[in-house]
Each structure stands twice: as structure tokens, then as C-alpha cells.
Design goal:
The protein is an alpha/beta fold and 511 residues long. It folds into two domains: 222 residues, 3-Layer(aba) Sandwich (Aldehyde Dehydrogenase, Chain A, domain 1); 189 residues, Aldehyde Dehydrogenase, Chain A, domain 2, CATH 3.40.309. Helices cover 43% and strands 18% of the residues. The protein is built from 18 helices and 18 strands. The relative contact order is 0.13. It binds nicotinamide-adenine-dinucleotide. Nicotinamide-adenine-dinucleotide (NAD) binds next to helix 8 and helix 9.
Length: 511
């Protein structure tokens, strides 16, 4: 049984069928867009973008507010569809797929004008007497948005808010595992009165994604796995177009001896099990200083035992969204067991449920020889390792090919910030888990294998623009740079100028 399988096609396009991971029942079929379909969508998007780029920020913002209104009005439809597609817990669906997108749409609608306002920086030194500079944020054109299955609505709407406010059009290729959420997003953009073709969806699998990269797009905004990210990055490099890669992670949590252990235990369980552990900044490795290890493990174990897992009614930990991910989770658990890990809670597929459910799990006695501590597991697993002190914790945390986020738990916030700074990660939190993505003022993105470039905040918004400097004479008709014919007198003058402007400390201070 596969959550995405080939279906019979009556036309020229490959057809796929999607199943619900919660019930294993089919939920619908869809055609994969061909390279021609994709090129056509990009061409139409380019036409739509020309008009969109003419609108000022207030006018663009009105569309985003109208879309936000649609999300609010249709939140039950969103929640119901996302649960059908992914089997995620209802709370996860509301927090991630409704609240977070509304917050992003509102934030960028409100703030893009401030972040993308053209600037007039003063030019330093002698050039400042002659020239003036203006920096403008120019839309790139058509953005190809390629998204994964763990946050199908959020990861459509959050980048969309940024790309659109920056004046671009979008063609999105959603994951084949969650093919219908983006269609609902499309429906909502239509109801919000978006110009036709400004936002389009091309469905399909990796082939369609690759076709989007090869089409005439001006940027690729990719969120997904490291392996695919490398391919997308290489293809963009060939085309010499900009790209951002938001990739996988293996976030470490460091629990210091002075941590509030109740809060840290709650953070460990939430961070590891939220969204079934399918969260790029999910807590995947926990390093606990020896003095508080036993007490911490006890608290985490008690909390994890209380988690409910159900395919009907109230549930804390939802289904694993994809059978391929279930295989990875099970193989990491098998490997950990074989190498001596101790499973205190769960550790297996839930035998009482028909769908793809993995029990919330606590594992101790883990080592860096195990896949569970080195490769992205993306499951509801709390993996805990005892360390001698904070130094060992930092060194273990940094012993990873990934570098997305990390977190430090201590009652001494300043110490926490100092330790967090030493993590080789894109971002880090003190006494909380993966909150950075939800703080739109903050840039978000990984280092090492976790990605390239940053999204969100002013930097993210500007990454959807070409930052263009414009220069002109400061007053009236200035002098043209250089000037033929070259003469000895002119050259001597220039050498004198070098001495005058840079030859003394005082002169350098003024320059
Ligand atoms: P994936 O790489 O398998 O697929 C992502 C998207 O790329 C899908 O739409 C897929 O169809 C498409 N694709 C596949 N092959 C392609 C190709 N050759 N060219 C272009 N597109 C192609 O990832 P996934 O399994 O869908 O998502 C899970 C991964 O995403 C995890 O590693 C997770 O950590 C990561 N993720 C990262 C972030 C972040 O912000 N850093 C956020 C969410 C998820």
C-alpha cells in the first residue's frame, strides 16, 4: 500500500491517486502536469505579473487581506481537507495551517511597504559630493514555488505572502503526497478576487517539479529534503537563476542542570511529537546534563505516556503522513534497538489503528552511531542522551551534517543565549523549540546541509526582489567618470588625491 499510487489515465498525462494515511482510503486522483503545461502556466503568470507589479503596496495588501479573510471564513474546510490528506492532529492543523498563514498574510501585507521602500543611502567620501544613490526593490518576475507535504497550506501561503507583496507572480508545484491543499488555496485566491493567473498550481511529482525549475521562472523557492534540494540547486545554477533551499534538519535540544525541568520536559515532548514529528525544526536529539538526566527522563516519559493517539475524536499525535516516511522511522528505530538503545515508551507502529500511526516514543541510551541521532527521522520520537556538561552538549549538538535550528534550556537566559550562539545552526531558541519560523521579523533558513538562503522577515521579502542600485549626479550636470584623453597631469592629480584622502588617519576618518 502506498499513499500515492499510479492510477489509470485516459489522456496523455500520468495520473496519480492519493490515499488518506489515517484511513488508507483513496481521497482523490489528479493528473501530473507535463513540461508543456508547466511552461504554459509560467507564460500566463508572466503576463499577470506585469500588471501586478504596477500596483502599489497598499493595493497588493488589499488582496492579501481578502485572502486572509477567506482563510478565516473557510478554516473548517482547510482543517478538514488537511486532516484528510495528512492525518495530522486537529490542533496541529489549526495552529500550522490556519493560524500561521493568517499571521503571515497579515504581517507581510502590513509591513512589505516598510521593508521594500526604496532607500537613499548617503554616499561616503568624495563620491558623495558628486553622486546620489537610490536603491529599489524590483520584483523578480515569476517565482516557482516547490513545496513538501508536512505543512501543505502553511508552506503555500507563507512564501506566497512574501513573493506576492514583492510584486511577483507564482507557479506552485505542491507535494504529490498532499496534492489537494494547494488547490483549495487556489480556490481561495479566486474568491479573494486575485487577478487571473497571478497564482497557479501545477500538480504532479518530482518530474513536474523538475519541469518547473527548467521552465522560464525567475527564482525557485524550494522547501523539501536535502537530496532533492541538491538537485534543484544544481539545476538553478545551470540556469543562473536565484533560489532558496529550505531543507531538512536534526535539531538538538540542550538541557542544562539549572533548567526548569517541567518546562523542558514539556518542550521536549511538544518539540518531538508536534505535527507527528514532521516538522523541519522538530526536536530530534536531546542532550541532558548528567545531574538532571534521571529526573528529566522521568518527566518526559510520564508526559509521553499521557499523549493520545486516535483516528477518531480527540488526539494529540496524528498519523505519519506518508508510507515512505514510516519506512524511515521504522528503520531508524530498528537500527537504534540493534545498537543498544532503550525504548521506554512506544517504539512501534500503533497496532490498534488501521492507518499509518507510529506511537509517541521515548528512547534513551542512544549514541551518534545510530541513524536516530544522525539522520533526519521526522517521527514522533523523543531521543535522549546523557552528557557530562554543557560543553559536551554543544559539541554533540554541532556534530551533525544538519544545521537548521536548536534550543537551549536554562533558567539563566543570558547563559542560554551565549550557548545558543555557539550552535552551528541557522537559528536557535532559549527555553522554547521551533518558534523562530512563527516570528516573522526573524530570518529563517539553515546552514550546512539544512539549506541555502533565508526566508521570512525583511531579508526573506527582499530575497524575492532584485535589489537594484540607481545612481545619478547629485546636482545638475556633474562630471563624467574618468575622461579621455588620459594625461600625465590628470594622473598626477589622482595620485595626489589618494594621498589627501587616504594618506593620514584624519583623512581616512573623513573619507
Ligand atoms: P522532497 O524533497 O521529497 O519533495 C519536496 C518537493 O519537491 C515535492 O513537491 C516533490 O514533488 C518535489 N520534487 C521531487 N523531486 C524533484 C526534482 N527533481 N525537482 C524539483 N522538484 C522535485 O521532500 P518532502 O519529503 O516532500 O518533504 C520533507 C522534507 O522537507 C523534510 O526533509 C523536511 O525537513 C523538509 N522541510 C524543510 C522545511 C524548512 O523550512 N527548512 C520546512 C518543511 C519541510
Amino acid at each position: 500500500m502506498a499513499i500515492v499510487e499510479a492510477a489509470e489515465s485516459s489522456g496523455p498525462r500520468r495520473r496519480l491517486r492519493a490515499l488518506s494515511p489515517a484511513t488508507l482510503e483513496p481521497i482523490g486522483e489528479f493528473d501530473c502536469a507535463t513540461p508543456d503545461d508547466v511552461r504554459g502556466a509560467v507564460e500566463r503568470a508572466r503576463k499577470a505579473q506585469a500588471g501586478w507589479a504596477q500596483l502599489d503596496f497598499d493595493a497588493r495588501a488589499k488582496y492579501l487581506y481578502a485572502l486572509c479573510q477567506q482563510v478565516v471564513a473557510r478554516q473548517d474546510d482547510i482543517i478538514e481537507l488537511v486532516i484528510r490528506e495528512t492525518g495530522k492532529a486537529r490542533n496541529d492543523a489549526i495552529a500550522m495551517e490556519v493560524f500561521a498563514p493568517c499571521d503571515a498574510l497579515t504581517f507581510y501585507a502590513k509591513n512589505a511597504k516598510k521593508f521594500l521602500r526604496s532607500e537613499k543611502p548617503r554616499i561616503h567620501g568624495v563620491m558623495g559630493f558628486m553622486k546620489k544613490l537610490r536603491i529599489i526593490y524590483k520584483p523578480l518576475g515569476v517565482v516557482g514555488l516547490i513545496t513538501p507535504w508536512n505543512g501543505p497550506v502553511a508552506l503555500s501561503l507563507v512564501p506566497m505572502a512574501q513573493a506576492l507583496m514583492a510584486g511577483n507572480a507564482i507557479v506552485q508545484k505542491p507535494s504529490e503526497v498532499t496534492p489537494f491543499s494547494a488547490l483549495l488555496v487556489k480556490e481561495m485566491t479566486e474568491a479573494a478576487g486575485f487577478p487571473p493567473d497571478l497564482y497557479q498550481v501545477v500538480q504532479g511529482d518530482g518530474e513536474t517539479g523538475a519541469a518547473l525549475v527548467e521552465a522560464d521562472v525567475d527564482k525557485i523557492s524550494f522547501t523539501g529534503s536535502v537530496a532533492t534540494g541538491r538537485k534543484v540547486g544544481a539545476a538553478c545554477a545551470q540556469r543562473l537563476i536565484p533560489f532558496t533551499l529550505e531543507l531538512g534538519g536534526k535539531d538538538a535540544m540542550i538541557v542544562c542542570a539549572d533548567a526548569d525541568l517541567d518546562r523542558a520536559a514539556q518542550g521536549a515532548v511538544n518539540g518531538s511529537c508536534m505535527n507527528t514529528g514532521h516538522y523541519c525544526c522538530g526536536t530530534e536529539r536531546i542532550y541532558v546534563v548528567g545531574d538532571v538526566y534521571d529526573e528529566f527522563v522521568e518527566k518526559v516519559t510520564a508526559r509521553t505516556r499521557e499523549l493520545r493517539q486516535s483516528d477518531v475524536g480527540e488526539s494529540d499525535v496524528g498519523a505519519v503522513f506518508w508510507d515512505e516516511q514510516m519506512k524511515i522511522i521504522e528503520s531508524h528505530m530498528d537500527d537504534a534497538r540493534a545498537k543498544g538503545a532503550n525504548v521506554l515508551v512506544g517504539g512501534r507502529r500503533n497496532p490498534n489503528l488501521k492507518g499509518l500511526y507510529f506511537e509517541p516514543t521515548v528512547v534513551t541510551d542512544v549514541t551518534h552511531d545510530m541513524d536516530l541521532m544522525t539522520r533526519e527521522t521526522f517521527g514522533p520520537i523523543v531521543s535522549i542522551m546523557k552528557v557530562a556538561d554543557e560543553e559536551e552538549a554543544i559539541s554533540r549538538a554541532n556534530d551533525s551534517e544538519y544545521g537548521l535550528n536548536g534550543n537551549v534550556w536554562t533558567t539563566d537566559t543570558e547563559k542560554g543565549l551565549r550557548l545558543a550562539e555557539r550552535l552551528d545552526t541557522g537559528g536557535a531558541c532559549v527555553n522554547d523549540m521551533a518558534i523562530t519560523y512563527g516570528i516573522h521579523e526573524a530570518p529563517f533558513g539553515g546552514v550546512k546541509a539544512s539549506g541555502l538562503g533565508q526566508v521570512n522577515g525583511p531579508i526573506g521579502l527582499r530575497s524575492y526582489c532584485h535589489i537594484m542600485p540607481l545612481t545619478a549626479d547629485r546636482k545638475g550636470k556633474g562630471k563624467v567618470q574618468g575622461g579621455y584623453p588620459y594625461t600625465r597631469k590628470g594622473e598626477d592629480g589622482m595620485q595626489k588625491a589618494v594621498k589627501i584622502f587616504f594618506g593620514t588617519r584624519l583623512a581616512r576618518w573623513f573619507s
